[in-house]
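dude i think i finally got it to work??
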Amino acid sequence: MIERTFIKENVMETLVDEYLKNKLPRAGYSHMDVKKTPIGTRITVFAEKPGFVIGRKGKMVKELTETIATKYGVEKPQIEVKQIESPDLDAGVVAQKIASSLERGMHFRRVAHSAMRRVMAQGAKGVVVIVSGKLTGERSRTEKYMEGYMKHCGEPSEELVDQCHKIAKLKLGVVGVTVKIMPPEITLPDEIIIKDVPSKTTVETVEE
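look at this
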């Protein structure tokens, strides 16, 4: 029974996350955090532009609350909106910007390199942009762009690397956009920092 409860909650969170992704593309939606409280379910929405999530006179946030409660069965949802301090260091925001640019007809190479420059300008240790699908013709292919340092395997790649996947709907088909970012403040397990130790001056006293 406990396993079924966990599965049900995870499915609910995934469906709500997909709903917010489709509903808040202009808000720069990144991710959400769900916590159970004694008075209901608190859903914290992280977005680049909180004003689009709240809406005029709170109209949008009321619509989101009603839909999440009725359609997805969330008990007494309470939506809290938080602004992302560094949007160019958030993989979800960067991936959404790339997907939106592709849907507007911009070239994928130009969009990817421009996004990487913005990320590295914020001090990131590394960034990877992967674009896959029918980019220029009928045959699908994958283009991968990387700058800086990136962990691809092991525990650091799962816990320290911010990763997100978005899709862009083009005339030729659906294009997948994956962004991986290593934030500037993380410390890798194999990173060694050598500190300067002040030299000690020894004074010898000679007795006459």
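The chain has six helices and seven strands.
im so relieved honestly
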